[in-house]
Every structure is written in structure tokens, then in C-alpha cells.
Queue: 2 jobs
Job 1
Amino acid sequence: MKILFLLLLSTFAIAQPRRVWFDTDIMIGMKDKTPREVDDAIALIMALQHPDKIDLVGISTVAPGQYGYDVTQKLLGWYNRTGRTIPLYRGSETAKDIGTETDASRALAAALRTEKLPILAIGPVTNVATVVKNHPELIPQIEEVVVCAGRTPGLPFKPGLEKLSVGDYNFEMNPDAFRVLFDAGIRVVLSGYECSVYMLLGDTDIDFLNNKHTADQWVYDHLRPWMRFNQQLFGVDGFVPWDTTPLGYLTHPNYFKYYRDIPVRINTRRNDAGAPGDKPYLEVSYDYKDTKWRAVYAYKTLPGFEEILLEDLKRASAQKR
Ligand SMILES: [Ca+2]
């Protein structure tokens, strides 16, 4: 009996949600020449479905300015059923200005002063780099930064039918911000292209969102054009929900395979995504002997995670409430 009680007690202790800071360059629905990425929105909706696993301490936006702030507020209003108010802060507008304090950098620093936190940073990591640069005393308070970036050496980013090569967006928007994190010795988890590329959400996967409820319909109406745009670019039915795998590292870590304690380097060579000249590549290899930088690198999503994603969206769906 006593053993059973202890077992229950330890299970309860393990089941406490992990408190997490969520930093995003969310841009679903932003008016532009082409449809914009939807993956941050999916990651946010998923995160709100697992209050038993993660507790969002705060959310900060990077890059899309007022739009990112407003659309996050809108999605929280629709999909936050956790019973908790999640504060939202505007961060860097340009994603380039490391060191410029913002509401986001001040709030993240204040949060880190009170507790150690992991940071899920699914955009350029400028806000985090600003905190690290301006408040180095807080470095030990950062448990880990989970990002969507990085590659194994020479891996081209060619989704779908491999007709088109794309960049490592979050890294290339601000390579210096990644340098700041690695130089500070912070534990960085890289869960990027290689880990996510074989997940593909197509028409039939998201059809249930096409219902009469305002929230679901709004999401559906912005997933669809993004899907069409991806079909044109990459030749396959669907889109890759990139930012959901770094979230998955925090909510469902057993659904991914990792290279642990792997050396990291920034290598510069010819741009493989069509632009002239050279560009930096964030690369990991156990062969790199001349670098102190280390990361956890997620290289594969195991079967089952895509189903979790779809179940989360279904559970979140306004139709189900
Ligand atoms: Ca993102």
C-alpha cells in the first residue's frame, strides 16, 4: 500500500506541466503578395491542448509587428481553454536588432529572474539573444532554447518533389542571434527541416475545420491558400507544419530521434537557394572537432506525431465544444 502510494506520488510529480516561454514569428493570415506561413498558429493551438504537459508562462512575438500581436491575441481568445491568462508581449520588429530592449525582452528577463525556464523560440531568436546579451547573469536561468533551424552538413532543403531549394529561414534571418546563444553555452535544441519535412498536412486532414464556427473557419480559410501555394511550389498535396516539431520536443519528446551533444558550426559557402553569393549554414556533425558549440539535434519524427497534431486540432476545434 505504501509502495503504491509512493508510486502514485512520483507519477503525480512527473505529471506536473513544464513551464515554458513561447516566442513566435506568427504570421498566419498576414496580407502580403503571397499567403504566409501557418505553422506557428498550429503550434500555438497544439500547445494550448496540453496544459498537463506545458504551461505557457508568456508569449512574445518577433518580426511581424502589430499583426503578430493581434493575431496571437485573436487565437488565444478562440483557443485558450486552459483557464489561465497567458500574457503576450511585442518583441523585435525587424528580427535583426539584437540588444534593443522591447516589451518582450523585458518580460522574458523578468520571468527568468523568478524561475528557470525553457524557451520555445519558433522564429528568428532575436528576442532571446537580446536577453542573453543585455543580461548575461540570466544565462543560467535558461534551461534550454528549442528552435526550428539547423541541418546536417550539406543537406539541401528541398521539400516535396525536390524541385526547389529553400533557406533555413529562422537562422538566416539572424545568424548572429544564434551565435549569441551558442557562445553563451546555452543548451540549444535544433528541430528543423530534417525532422519535419516528411509530415504533410493535406486537404482531407483539415476538412473538419471547414465548419460554421468563426474560429475554425478563419483558420481553415488561411490554411487552404497556404496549402495551394505549397502545392504550386513543391508539387505535393499539403504543407509541412515545421514549427510543430520543436513544440513536440517539449510535449512529446519520445516521438523524435535525436543526435545528442553534437558539435555545431556555422559554415559559409555558395547559396544553394538561388540567391547569388555565399550564405551561412548552421550545421551539426560529430566530425566537427574545432568547435565548442553543442546542440541536441532532432533528425526524425516517428510515426504517430502527425496523428497527435491532428487530434489536437480536432480537440481544439470550436465545433467540438
Ligand atoms: Ca515560425
Job 2
Amino acid sequence: MTGPDNKRLKPLKIGDITLANPVLLAPMSGITDAPFRRLAATLGLSGCTRDTLGPIPAAELARLTEGAAGPPAPWEFTRINDPGPPGGFGTWTLTLPDGRNLTVRLEPVPTAACDHRHESRAYQPNAPLRHLVQVRDYECTFPTCSRHARESDFEHAVPYDQGGRTCACNAGARSRACHQVKQSPGWTLTQPRPGWHQWTTPAGRIYTQGPKRYPA
Ligand SMILES: [Zn+2]
Ligand SMILES: [Zn+2]
């Protein structure tokens, strides 16, 4: 996994394991990113070849725990706070084969209302916010552009110096080229809901791109 953004992310240390990138766990978008896939592969979980694992509902976690898809799974997911909100959200313990425990938190990706939980007061996002937007948008938010979000800018829809928040509800992935389109005369870009990017062309046509829907 390469990309300009990832070079700016600090390594994440969980117990005595260091991940090259912070890992954000989000049931709507799955357990994401190469570091986690590598960790999962190390632990013996198959099917980690996609960009994400897809949504991991509680039932799937239970299945993984039982090791129904082949050799016994050498890891175990246990929920810490029962029962938690629907959809598998909440805090889980991942127990490694050697008995070490990792704590993982499953959070929803806001796509309707934003509680600003990862908002930064600064112009630059913090690492979780940057990652959250990358996971949610998946690629550049210009409808015809498929540049991966990890290779795109973290961009404010309403500019920071005009009061725009550094938050999931005002940020979007914009490739460098589309970033320039947005700044061209006649173009406007709004985000009516978190993750829904509405572009208006100089001719007045409106195109909206919503959050990435990952395969289940
Ligand atoms: Zn927000
Ligand atoms: Zn683009």
C-alpha cells in the first residue's frame, strides 16, 4: 500500500505489535487496510485479499470464531460491552493464538448526521479523521474519477478559512486534478450529508456521489 497520505500517518502500536498505519474498524466499510489484512493473514484468516474484508456483522465474527471456513481459526473475537448497538458496533477483544489481547473498536461511519467525534480544530486532519474519510469515500469524490482516496487530497468542501470544519461532514477525497476542477470558476461542491458530495457544473448540472458501499 503506497500513497502520499499514508506516509503522513503515524505507525500505530497495539500491545507489542506495530502497524504501519493506524487501523480504523468500521462495520459499514469493513475492517480495512493492508496492515490489518497482513495481521489477519498472519493469524490464519483467509479471504483477506480484497481491499477490505467487507462488513463484519456479529454473526460473521461468531463464524470466524468457530473456524467454520476451514481450519480452526486461531483467533477469537469477544465483545466487551454487551450487547452494544446493533450491527456489531462496540468494543471487542481480539485474542491472538498466543493469548495476547488486542482491543478493537467498531464504529459506524457517519453518512446521515455527524457527531463531529473526529473533528480537528486545525486545518490538517488528525490521522483517524483522514483515514475515516479515505475509508468512507474510497476514491476521489468527483463522480467520473476513480483515483483511490489514499492517493487523493483530504479536502474541505467549505474552505477552512471560510469557517469550514475539519471534519468528516466537510471533508472529501479529491484527486489533485479534481481538486483543481473544484476551484475553477463556475463549479461548486457541497456536502449535504456526511459523505454525500454534490457537484454543480458551470452549466448547472448536479452530480452527487455517495459513500462507498463495500461488498458484504
Ligand atoms: Zn462533522
Ligand atoms: Zn479525481
